[in-house]
Design brief:
The chain is mainly beta. The chain is built from no helices and 10 strands.
Length: about 160
């Protein structure tokens, strides 16, 4: 298993509170192939594996939360792969330009070819952060395309709200 990650590493536009002001965001992340991956055959059918991996992303078109652009991040996930399809769940820690952090949870579906991601869609939830992002909440989606090296390019969009 090469890469089942944020490629869709963050989905569906909505927020937990409809009363608060919602701010739309969008950006593009360039994610490398996983730097650390461990996978095991399940043994119940051919090509069924469970995996854990970690990867890094750089925001080539950053989005802005609370007046601060995101810069780069690290995703850590578990995956369930059968043949040319996989699902993963994970966490993404985004580092902002001022050093603050944003914390995401995500669920991802990916199509694979020869173990490399081809397309993906991830639903993400922004669950908090540090500094100016303390108490931030949000949700969105990322659509990804695989790169030949096993990484991916993710186009992400969503909405967030800051605490009152």
């Amino acid at each position: 298993m090469k890469c089942m990650h944020l490629l869709a590493t963050l989905a569906a536009l909505a927020l937990t509170s409809t009363a608060a002001a919602q701010t739309k965001i969008s950006g593009t992340a360039d994610c490398g192939k996983p730097e650390a991956t461990h996978s095991l055959e399940v043994g119940d059918r051919p090509g069924h594996m469970l995996a854990v991996s970690q990867y890094k992303c750089t925001w080539t078109q950053p989005w802005e939360i609370a007046g601060v652009q995101n810069k780069e991040g690290v995703g850590t996930e578990t995956g369930d792969i059968t043949g040319d399809r996989g699902r993963s769940r994970g966490y993404y820690v985004d580092t902002m330009a001022n050093g603050d952090k944003a914390f995401y949870r995500y669920q991802n579906q990916v199509s694979l070819k020869d173990g490399n991601p081809q397309t993906s869609e991830a639903q993400w939830t922004l669950v908090g952060g540090t500094g100016k992002l303390k108490g931030v909440k949000g949700k969105g989606v990322c659509h990804g395309k695989g790169k030949p090296d096993g990484g991916g390019l993710d186009q992400c969009e969503g909405e967030y709200e800051l605490p009152k």
